[in-house]
Design a protein that fits this description.
The structure holds two protein chains of two kinds.
Chain A: H1 3-23, H2 30-56, E1 61-68, E2 71-77, H3 79-102, H4 109-128, H5 132-150, H6 156-187, H7 206-224, H8 232-235, H9 241-249, H10 252-268, H11 270-275, H12 279-298, H13 303-323, H14 327-358, H15 369-372, H16 374-388, H17 394-408, H18 412-438, H19 460-478, H20 486-497
Antiparallel strand pairs in A: 1-2
Helix pairs in contact in A: 1-2, 1-4, 2-3, 3-4, 3-9, 3-14, 3-19, 4-5, 5-6, 5-10, 6-7, 7-10, 9-14, 10-13, 12-13, 12-18, 13-14, 13-18, 14-16, 14-17, 14-19, 14-20, 16-18, 16-19, 17-18, 17-19
Chain B: H1 4-22, H2 24-52, E1 55-58, E2 69-72, H3 74-99, H4 108-124, H5 128-146, H6 152-183, H7 188-197, H8 201-218, H9 227-233, H10 236-259, H11 268-291, H12 295-311, H13 313-317, H14 322-357, H15 368-371, H16 373-387, H17 393-407, H18 411-436, H19 450-479
Antiparallel strand pairs in B: 1-2
Helix pairs in contact in B: 1-2, 1-4, 2-3, 2-4, 2-19, 3-4, 3-10, 3-14, 3-19, 4-5, 5-6, 5-10, 6-8, 6-9, 8-10, 9-10, 9-12, 10-12, 10-14, 11-12, 11-18, 12-14, 12-18, 14-16, 14-17, 14-19, 16-18, 16-19, 17-18, 17-19
Classes of the chains: A mainly alpha, B mainly alpha.
Chain lengths: 500, 480
C-alpha cells in the first residue's frame, strides 16, 4: 500500500479509533477522553490539510479494494471531497471543544463521544467515497451513528424525534439503495468522474435514467431536507446543542446535499441533465424548499426550531446553485456548503449557550440578552447577518454568486426566489437582534445556571467555538478573493466539474 | 488422520459420549478442545475442496450404489465451515452461561456432540436415505436440547417440537420410499440422471412430500407455529444453536434438491409459491417480533421473518439468466452465513442481558447501555446485519440479491426485500431505543462474567468482517 493510499485510511482511522476506544472508557476518565478526541480531531485536520496541499500539487489520492467481483470499495480525495472533508474535520474540532464544555457533568458521555466520533468518520467517508456503493455505505453508517445522538437525552420527546428520524432516513436510504443498484445494473461498476458517466448509455435507457434520477434525489433529499421530505429535521432539535450544531452544519443535511452534487456533476453530468430537462425540476424543488423553510421559520417561537427551519431553507441554496445551468451559480452553491456550515454552526452554538447559561429557549425570553452575554450575541449577530447575506460576511459571497449565476443562466425567477428568501431571513433574524440589544433585561433569567465571572459570560469552552466560527464567517467573506479562501478552492472544483 | 471427513462425524460422537461420562465441568472443557480441533479439520477439508474441487468419501470403502457415499462440494464446505465458526464461540459462551447456575446443563454437552455429528453428516450426505437418518438424529438431538431446562414450559415446547420434527421426517421418509420404489436407489448421483429423463407422477408426489417435510422443519410460514416457543423457550445457548444452524440444515437440503435432484420440477410457478410464502413470513414474522414483550421471543420471531428471506432466493434462481441466478445464489449463501452469525450473536447477547436483568422483559432494558455496553453493541450490530445495512455481511447479501432481482426484472421481490429490511429495523430499534433510556431508579443489574460477553461479540464481529471477506466465502462456494 502506497503512502497516499494509507493516508486515506488514516483520515478515517483518526476518528474511528478514538471513537472505539472511548466506548470502552469509564465515565470518569474525562481527561483521557478529551485528549483522545482532540488528538484525533487535530490529526484529522492535519492529514486533510496535507492532502489539500497535495491536490494542488498534482497528487492523486485513491484507494480501491475489491470486495467482490465487479464490486469495489473506492476511497478518493479529489478537490470536492477535500472541501467537504476539511469542513467536517474543522467543525468537528470546534464541536468537540464545545461538547466537552456543554456536557460537563451530564451522564453517558463515553457513549456520546463514541458515537460522535463515528458520526464524523461516516461524514468524512461520505466525502471521500469514490463511487456510489462506497457512498451508500457511509451514508447509512451516518444514519446509524447519529440515531443514538438524537435520542441521547432519553426523554419522551427525544425518543419520538428519534423514531421520526429513523423512519425518514431509513426509508430514504432504502430508496437510494434501489436507485443505486438499478444504476449499477445498467452501467456495471463505475466511479465518480468529472462530467458524469451515464451519457455513454443508449438513448433507449433515458426513461429509466429519469426514474433513477428521481429516486436518487428522493433518497438524498430526505437528508438534505428537501420539502416535503424535511419533516424529521425540526423534530431532531431535541438533541443536545452540539449534536444539532453538527447535524445542521456538516453531518447529516450536508451529506444529502453533497450526494446531490456528486449525482448531478459526476454521475449524470450537468450537460446530460440539462439535455434531459431534469435540472429545472430540481431547481424548482429547491426553490419551493427555500421559500417554505423561510416561511415556516417566521412562525417559530423557539429559537432552535427557527434555526432548524432556516436550515431547511439554506441547504437548498446549495441545491439551487447546483441545478442552475451555469458555472457561476455552481460556485455559489458549492461555496455555500462551506459558508452555511460555519454560519449555522455559530448560530447553534449560540443558541446552546443561551439555553445552558440562562435557560432561555424562546425568542420572547431574549430581551436584552446582548448585554448579559455580549460575546455570544455578537457571534450570533455576525452569523445571522451572514445568513441574510449582508456584505463582508460569507453569506454575501454565496448569494452574490448565486444571483449572478441565475442571471447568466437566464433564470431570473431563481434570483427572485433568492431575494424573497433574503427578505424572509431578515424578517426572522432582525427582530431577534433587536431584542438582544434594544430591549431591557428582565429581573431574572429563566434559569441561570452559569454565572458570569469577570470577563467570562459563560463557560470558556462554550464561548471559544462560536467566536472562532463567527470570525471564520467574516474572514471567508472579507478575504474571499485570496487564494486560500473556500471560494478560491470552489472555483478550482467548478473548473474541473464543467471540464473547463 | 489423513482424511478429515470421517473424523468430522466420529469426533463429535466421541466427545459427546465422553462428556456424558466425565460430567459437566470436564466434559465441557473436553468439548471446547475438540471443537477447536474440528475447526482445524474443517479448514483442512475446505482447503482440499478449494484445491481439488469436489471431495468424495466412501464409507467403509464401499461406494454407492452398494455403500454410502459422502460428498463435499462448495456449498457443503461453506455450511461446514459456518457451523464450526458459529459453534465454537457458542460453546465457550455456553460453558460460562451454565456456570451462572442455570438449570439444564446436564445433557447439554452430550446432546451438542450428537447434534454436531448429525449436522456434519447431513451436509456431506449424498443419498436421500442417509439424509433422512441425519434429519432424524438432528431433530432428536435438538429436541433433547430444548428440553434440557427440565421445567414445564421447556418440556412442553420440546414435546411440540418433537411432534413437528417427527412428522417432518416421517413425511420426508414417505417421499424417499416412493423414489426407492420407482428407481430402486437412494443415491443422488444415480437418481439425478434418471429423474432428468422423465418425471413420473410418483416422482412428483415424492418431491412434494419431501419438500413439505423439509418445510416443516425449516419453519417456513405457515409451518412456523412451533418455532417461537421452541427457540424462545430453550436455554439461550440452545436457542442460538437452533436459530443459527439447525433450521439452516433443512433449508440447505431444500436448496440442494431444488438445484439437483428435482431440478426438472423446479418450475417458475413453484418458485413463485415459495417466494410468496417467504414474503408472507417476512411480513408476519416482523410484525409478530415487533409485538413481543420478551427479548428472546422477539429474536425467535425475527428468525421466522428471516427464514422468509431465504425463500426469496428461489424465484431469483429459477428460469432466469445464468448470470442473475449466479449472483442471487451468492447473495443467498452470504445471507445464510450472515444470518447464522448475527442470530447466534443476537440470542447470545439477549441471554447476557436477561441474566443481568434477572428477567426476560424488554421494558426492563432501560439503562443497560451503561451497564453492558459491549453486549448492547453486539445486539445492535447483529440487528444491523439483519436489517441488511452496511457495513455488514447482511448488506452484501442484500446488495447481491437486489442486484439479481433488478437484472432479471423481478421488481416485486425488490419491494419485498426493501420492506423486509425496514420492518426488521422496526423491531431491532424497539430494543435499542429501550436500552438507551435512562435506568429506572429501583432497577438492579446483576454483574455478568466477561467470558459471556466476548464470545457473543466475537460472533457479531465475524459477521461484520464478512462484508470484507465475502469474496473468500464465494471462492469456497464456487469451488464445488
Amino acid at each position: 500500500m502506497s503512502v497516499n493510499e494509507s493516508l486515506l485510511l488514516l483520515v478515517l482511522a483518526s476518528s474511528l479509533v478514538p471513537g472505539v476506544i472511548i466506548f470502552f472508557l469509564p465515565e470518569s476518565r474525562i481527561r483521557l477522553r478529551t485528549l483522545l478526541n482532540l488528538t484525533g480531531a487535530i490529526l484529522k485536520l492535519l492529514l486533510i490539510g496535507y492532502m489539500l496541499w497535495g491536490i494542488q500539487h498534482g497528487q492523486i489520492y485513491i484507494l480501491r479494494y475489491n470486495l467482490l467481483l465487479n464490486l469495489e470499495l473506492v476511497l478518493k480525495v479529489d478537490a470536492l471531497a477535500a472541501l467537504f472533508a476539511t469542513l467536517s474535520a474543522a467543525l468537528w474540532l470546534l464541536t468537540t471543544l464545545y461538547a466537552v464544555g456543554y456536557l460537563e457533568r451530564s451522564p453517558h458521555r463515553s457513549r456520546f463521544f463514541g458515537f460522535f466520533s463515528l458520526c464524523v468518520t461516516a461524514t468524512v467517508g461520505v466525502a471521500m467515497a469514490g463511487n456510489l456503493f462506497t457512498f451508500f455505505i457511509f451514508y447509512e453508517l451516518l444514519t446509524l451513528s447519529t440515531y443514538p445522538l438524537v435520542v441521547h437525552r432519553g426523554t419522551e420527546a427525544a425518543i419520538r424525534a428519534g423514531n421520526i428520524y429513523l423512519i425518514y432516513t431509513l426509508s430514504g436510504g432504502a430508496v437510494l439503495l434501489v436507485a443505486i443498484i438499478w444504476l449499477y445494473s445498467l452501467l456495471g461498476q463505475f466511479e465518480f468522474i468529472y462530467g458524469g458517466v451515464v451519457a455513454v448509455l443508449d438513448s433507449k435507457y433515458s426513461p429509466q435514467l429519469q426514474i433513477i434520477f428521481l429516486l436518487l434525489i428522493i433518497g438524498l433529499g430526505v437528508k438534505a431536507a428537501l420539502v416535503p421530505l424535511h419533516g424529521w429535521l425540526p423534530q431532531a432539535m431535541v438533541a443536545p446543542a452540539p449534536v444539532s450544531a453538527l447535524l445542521h452544519a456538516v453531518a447529516v443535511v450536508k451529506a444529502g446535499a453533497f450526494g446531490i452534487i456528486r449525482i448531478v456533476y459526476e454521475v449524470y453530468g450537468v450537460e446530460y441533465l440539462q439535455s434531459m430537462n431534469l435540472l429545472i425540476p430540481l431547481a424548482i424543488a429547491a426553490s419551493i424548499t427555500i421559500i417554505w423553510g423561510s416561511l415556516r421559520a417566521l412562525w417559530q417561537s423557539d429559537l432552535k426550531r427557527r434555526l432548524a427551519y432556516s436550515t431547511v431553507s439554506q441547504v437548498s441554496y446549495i441545491i439551487l446553485g447546483v441545478s442552475l445551468f451555469s458555472p457561476v451559480s455552481t460556485i455559489g452553491g458549492i461555496v455555500h456548503l462551506v459558508h452555511q456550515g460555519i454560519m449555522k454552526i455559530t448560530l447553534f452554538f449560540c443558541a446552546g449557550n443561551y439555553a445552558e447559561t440562562l435557560g432561555i429557549h424562546k425568542i420572547s425570553e431574549m430581551n436584552g440578552v446582548g448585554w448579559r452575554m455580549p460575546w455570544t450575541s455578537i457571534a450570533f449577530c455576525i452569523a445571522a447577518l451572514g445568513m441574510i447575506g449582508a456584505p463582508l460576511t460569507a453569506g454575501y459571497i454565496s448569494k452574490l454568486y448565486l444571483n449572478q449565476g441565475a442571471e447568466i443562466a437566464d433564470q431570473m425567477w431563481a434570483s427572485g426566489v433568492l431575494t424573497v428568501s433574503s427578505l424572509f431571513n431578515a424578517t426572522y433574524f432582525l427582530p431577534i437582534m433587536y431584542r438582544f440589544w434594544f430591549k431591557t433585561q428582565p429581573q431574572t433569567w429563566v434559569q441561570e445556571r452559569i454565572y458570569a465571572r469577570g470577563r467570562w459570560e459563560t463557560h470558556g469552552l462554550l464561548l471559544i467555538p462560536p467566536l472562532v466560527s463567527a470570525a471564520a464567517t467574516l474572514v471567508a467573506g472579507i478575504f474571499a478573493d485570496t487564494d486560500w479562501s473556500p471560494l478560491y478552492w470552489v472555483k478550482l472544483i467548478v473548473k474541473r466539474e464543467y471540464l473547463l | 488422520m489423513s482424511d478429515p471427513i470421517p473424523w468430522l462425524i466420529l469426533l463429535p460422537l466421541l466427545w459427546g459420549l465422553l462428556s456424558f461420562l466425565l460430567g459437566v465441568g470436564r466434559g465441557g472443557r473436553l468439548a471446547i478442545v475438540c471443537l477447536v480441533i474440528q475447526l482445524a479439520l474443517v479448514a483442512l477439508l475446505v482447503g482440499q475442496v478449494v484445491a481439488e474441487k469436489d471431495r468424495y468419501y466412501a464409507v467403509g470403502g464401499w461406494s454407492a450404489p452398494l455403500g454410502i457415499d459422502l460428498h463435499v462440494d462448495g456449498l457443503a464446505s461453506v455450511m461446514l465451515l459456518l457451523t464450526h465458526v458459529v459453534i465454537l464461540p457458542l460453546g465457550i459462551y455456553a460453558r460460562s452461561y451454565f456456570s451462572h447456575n442455570v438449570e439444564g446443563v446436564g445433557y447439554f454437552w452430550p446432546m451438542l456432540g450428537l447434534l454436531l455429528a448429525a449436522l456434519n453428516t447431513l451436509f456431506m450426505s449424498a443419498d436421500i436415505f442417509n439424509i433422512y437418518v441425519t434429519l432424524e438424529l438432528l431433530g432428536l438431538a435438538a429436541v433433547g436440547l430444548v428440553g434440557t431446562a427440565g421445567n414445564t414450559r421447556s418440556i412442553l415446547a420440546a414435546i411440540r417440537y418433537l411432534l413437528v420434527t417427527l412428522l417432518g421426517s416421517g413425511v420426508y421418509l414417505a417421499g424417499v420410499a416412493l423414489i426407492y420404489g420407482s428407481y430402486g436407489s437412494v443415491a443422488l448421483a444415480v437418481l439425478e440422471p434418471l429423474i432428468e429423463n422423465e418425471v413420473s407422477v410418483a416422482v412428483f408426489l415424492a418431491a412434494i412430500l419431501m419438500l413439505v417435510g423439509l418445510l416443516l422443519k425449516t419453519a417456513l410460514f405457515p409451518f412456523h407455529f412451533w418455532l417461537p416457543s421452541a427457540h424462545g423457550g430453550a436455554p439461550t445457548p440452545v436457542s442460538a444453536l437452533l436459530s443459527a444452524l439447525v433450521i439452516k440444515a433443512s433449508f440447505y437440503l431444500i436448496l440442494r434438491m431444488w438445484l439437483g435432484l428435482y431440478a426438472p420440477l423446479a418450475t417458475i410457478q413453484a418458485a413463485q409459491l415459495l417466494g410468496g410464502l417467504g414474503a408472507v413470513a417476512i411480513l408476519w414474522g416482523s410484525i409478530m417480533a415487533f409485538n413481543q414483550t420478551r427479548l428472546k421471543m422477539l429474536a425467535a420471531y425475527s428468525t421466522v421473518a428471516q427464514i422468509g428471506y431465504f425463500f426469496l432466493l428461489f424465484p431469483l434462481i429459477t428460469e432466469v439468466g445464468s448470470e442473475a441466478a449466479e449472483i442471487a445464489m451468492q447473495g443467498g449463501v452470504i445471507q445464510l452465513v450472515a444470518h447464522a452469525l448475527a442470530k447466534a450473536a443476537m440470542f447470545a447477547a439477549a441471554g447476557v442481558m436477561i441474566l443481568s436483568m434477572g428477567k426476560d422483559d424488554i421494558a426492563l432494558l432501560s439503562g443497560i447501555s451503561s451497564r453492558l455496553p459491549l453486549t448492547l453493541f453486539t445486539f445492535a450490530l447483529a440487528g444491523v446485519t439483519l436489517m441488511g445495512l452496511p457495513p455488514t455481511g447482511g448488506f452484501i447479501a442484500k446488495w447481491l440479491l437486489i442486484s439479481s432481482a433488478v437484472s432479471s426484472g423481478q421488481w416485486g421481490w425488490v419491494v419485498v426485500m426493501i420492506l423486509g429490511g425496514l420492518l426488521s429495523a422496526g423491531y431491532v430499534f424497539k430494543v435499542l431505543r429501550q436500552a438507551l433510556l435512562p435506568a429506572a431508579a429501583e432497577m438492579k443489574f446483576r454483574p455478568v462474567n466477561p467470558s459471556l460477553e466476548w464470545p457473543a461479540f466475537l460472533l457479531t464481529f465475524i459477521s461484520l468482517s464478512l462484508s470484507f471477506a465475502s469474496n473468500n466465502v464465494l471462492n469456497i462456494l464456487g469451488a464445488g
